[in-house]
Amino acid sequence: MKKFKFRAPKLKQATPDQLTDRLLLINLYLTQGLTFIIGIIWILFQRRNPLELFAVQPGSYFWAWGLGLAAVMFLIDFAVSRITPEEVMDDGGINHLLFRKRPVWHIICIAAVVAVCEELLFRGAVQHSFGPYWTSILFAAIHVRYLRHWIPTAWVFLSSYGLGYIYIHSGTLLAPVVCHFAIDCISGLVIRFRRES
């Protein structure tokens, strides 16, 4: 009887010039869908209702928490980008490829999907189990494209910790969702409408 040899699949990193627009979008929506499903399952295993995470308490200023942190993060990002070389903050061209030719409605859609899915998993599920510090380490680690330089990795960690902080103090997942959405949407629009030098 003939033996079958099973080989492990070979995975290799694709460069931005190898990615088509369609492949990039498929990857984005599949990973976000998987993130959402894992988040829901994790929250249900914690015996919590995912919808209750979005509840707003009377007098809650989740908009102020979310937009306030987004404004602070934009100011810090602007300052860091002025004092560091551009290649240090480069993500390998993925954000440019994702947003540069995207219609405005699609940028808004992408920002909303990413904000809800990632915040549901990381702030809603992971942070409940491990706290904001370990959640932020995991959040920075999954943003693989930034790991080549310590400045963007540290920035993703601090951003995640800030999102965890406003989640705790606002009492609703809407605060980090608003912040995450504002950052991704505005950044995408800046890439979309920035003039090429």
Short synopsis of the structure:
The chain crosses the membrane at residues 21-45, 61-83, 104-122, 151-168. By secondary structure, the chain is mainly alpha-helical.
Any chance you could write out the topology, listing elements then pairs?
Blueprint: H1 21-45, H2 62-83, H3 94-99, H4 104-142, H5 150-170, H6 174-193
Helix pairs in contact: 1-4, 2-5, 2-6, 4-5, 4-6, 5-6
Describe this structure as you would to a colleague.
With 197 residues, the protein is mainly α. The chain is built from 6 helices and no strands. The chain has helices at 21-45, 62-83, 94-99, 104-142, 150-170, 174-193. It is globular and about 65 Å long. The N and C termini lie far apart (65 Å).
